[in-house]
Amino acid sequence: MKKKMLFIVPVLILVGVLLIITTSQGCKGKVSSSVKNSFSEVTSQLDEGGSIYLYVSTERMIKALDEMVLKIKNIAAKESSANPEEGKENIKVLDFVYGLLKKSGLMEVSGIGFSSVTMEEGLNHSKLVIHHYKDSGKGIIWQFSESKPHKLEMLSLLPTTTAFAGYGDFKFGNFWDWVKQEINASDIPAAKQGMAMAESSIQMLGIDLNKLKTNMSNGMGVVLTLDKGKMCKIPAGSSIIEVPDPGVAIVVYVKDDYIFNLLKSKISIAKPTVDKNMKKLSIPVPVQGLPITLDPVIVQKGNMLVLASSGKLVDAMFSAQDKGNGLTATEEFKKFSKAIPEEGNSFRYLGTELFNVIMGLVKKSMAGSGGEGPESEEASKLFSDMIPQKVGLYGVVQNTPEGFVFTFNHTFNLEQLVLLPATIVPAMVAAIAVPNFLTAMQKGKEKATMGDLKSIGIAIESYMTDNYEAPTGNTIIDIQPKLVPFHIKMLPLKDAWGNDFLYKHGTGKNKDIYFIASPGKDGVFNGWDQTGFYSISSPNDYNNDIIFSNGVFVYGPEIH
Q: pTM of this prediction?
């Protein structure tokens, strides 16, 4: 028995030591938060294993904001001791604004989470979670949308030419009533008066506000299309740019035809028609020959009210809905919609074509402003390198019992996503500043050239004072020995663009006449018989010649 005990005791001691070591190692480095937060609730909805994973608790921030506002109120009260009435009014306004902020629902946000995972080369799947606890969500921002995700009907309306589209639930009646309630509950007479005037103005326009609120308490969206089948030539300064024919439509989901009939009564020039189970208002455009298609129409079909830039766009939208051959049938949309919820409360779509068109316009604008040459090419290359070459996105927002979840696929990689705010600003600054810099640089060269022409002219006139005639020679180099060093220490031989200065002198009775010239930026001289002055309105104007004769410019840029 003693031998057994002698064996068991060391074993028990060894097991105890191992348990202590294991427990201590398992707990090492783990610290539990003493402050309530939504970490578990938020991170449970994110995707792990990607290139970015982020959680931020906002509860301490909100508490700090409360304390800061209280301090501001105390400071305002002390500062207004000389004028107590004014101080009271200022505090009322502060209380009202901060009260709106608190009741809006923003102060109910308990945490924000973000994750991003690369699905395949050039396609990333990301989630943004804006969380509130289940017993919260009373603010107006949570009440704009329907309480649950639903089928996104507007997706079926998007034609294949869609470059951008967005839709969102929006209960206009809820928003208006909330604003009115808060203003009337405030102690600010001016705010109450403003609300009363707004409602009175709406009534004077013959609009039934209650009917308007009822009709606009569903979703609404916008569609932007770019039709490559028709390229539009649009003047841009001294050049012409071509863009795909744009079209835009606003879609409002309504209860009945009240808004349509209201617009019909207010737009006197509109021509009403009934076509294919829909009501239509065609609005004549007084200007003809526009580079883009513009034939405005207002159409009501079922519960959809569409305000579009052309009837052609409306036809394309309804054709996509009826035949199912719109944007959702394209390969690009199918790629962007992988693993995206089919139901939601809003969506955003950005096709790669829109970004390509915008970047093309920016590059052409830079080229037009900066002129031709290595500097302009370098500026354009710099801009291209700083901006992602292909940008597209599709995402759906869902209103859940614990806040908003935005799930979206996009073409930015992690580096672009993180650096985009840092690169987009310098890139846009470059788009503006580089052309201006290049123009300023040409202006500087022009001024330097004109200054050198004056200096050469002064030297020649000094020579003429002693010799009663202009120095003879066919080039500036020919007359250099006659002017240096007695009439000028160093004679400029080339203009600021690197071109040789040109020289001509009179003969016979006109031997006291001289001409000196710069052939301009392009180095091409167009003759000595040019006279007058030209304005500089584009980089190409610096190609013009500059001619100086007997103390004055006879041909050159206008001096302001």
A: 0.67
The answer to whether 166 and 349 are in contact (CB under 8 A) is yes
pLDDT, residue 237, reads 58
Determine contact, residues 506/413, Cβ cutoff 8 Å.
no
- Asked if 251 contacts 221 with a C-beta cutoff of 8 angstroms, the reply is yes
Q: How far apart, in Å, are the Cα atoms of 255 and each of 212, 267, 415?
A: 10, 21, 46
Cα dist from 417 to 48, 51, 70, 201, 260, whole Å: 18, 11, 37, 46, 42
Q: Which residue has the tokens 């034939």?
A: 295
> How open is the CA angle 80-86-88, to the nearest 5 degrees?
85
DSSP structure class, residue 304:
E
| Cα(219)–Cα(211) distance, integer angstroms | 16
Q: Tokens 């009373």 map to which residue?
A: 138
DSSP three-state, residue 129: strand
The 3-state DSSP class for residue 123 equals strand
Residues ≥6 apart with Cβ < 8 Å to 35: 57, 59, 60
Classify residue 494 by its DSSP letter: B
Mean pLDDT (whole number) for 419-435: 58
Q: What are phi and psi of 232, to 5 degrees?
A: -100, 130
What does DSSP say about strands 552-557 and 546-549: parallel, antiparallel, or unpaired? antiparallel
Three-state DSSP state, 219 = strand
CA 493 to chain centre: 49
Strand partners, 487: none
Q: What's the confidence (pLDDT) of residue 357? A: 77
Closest CA to 162 of 341, 321, 51, 372: 321
The structure tokens listed for 111 are 């945490």
